[in-house]
Amino acid sequence: MTSIRSLKDRQSRSKRRIETFLHRQDGREIRALLTDVSNHGCRLQPQEWLAVDERVRIEVPRLGSIAATIRWMSDGHAGAEFVPQSDVWEEAAKGRE
Q1: Among 7, 13, 59, 88, who pairs with 65 as Cys (CB 3.0-4.6 Å)?
Q2: What is the pLDDT of residues 3-25, one digit of tens each?
Q3: What is the largest distance, in Å, between two alpha-carbon atoms of the chain?
Q4: Which residues partner with 24 through β-bridges?
Q5: Sequence-distant contacts of 85-90: CB under 8 A, at least 24 apart
Q6: Where do the domains of the chain lie, and which CATH numbers do they carry?
């Protein structure tokens, strides 16, 4: 059964395709195509496999960046859920010390 929230969220998604960079917690940067953007997350087509629950920073040139958690990965596509910046980058900083 589909919830009202998920129906509303699907209706408000942008179908634009935007070239982005993903910054991984180990410091690597990879390219990805960002599609199907909603207020809560997006679909990505990354150049590398991403692990479920991996945290990344999605950077859109000239627009800024947002932290996200990878929720699924299949057939070269990934689903990302946006999260507050502090949750991701405080952990990343601790891992590099």
Answers
A1: 59
A2: 334 434 444 545 678 999 999 99
A3: 46
A4: 56
A5: 85/57, 87/55, 88/25, 88/55, 88/56, 88/57, 89/57
A6: 4-85 (2.40.10.220)
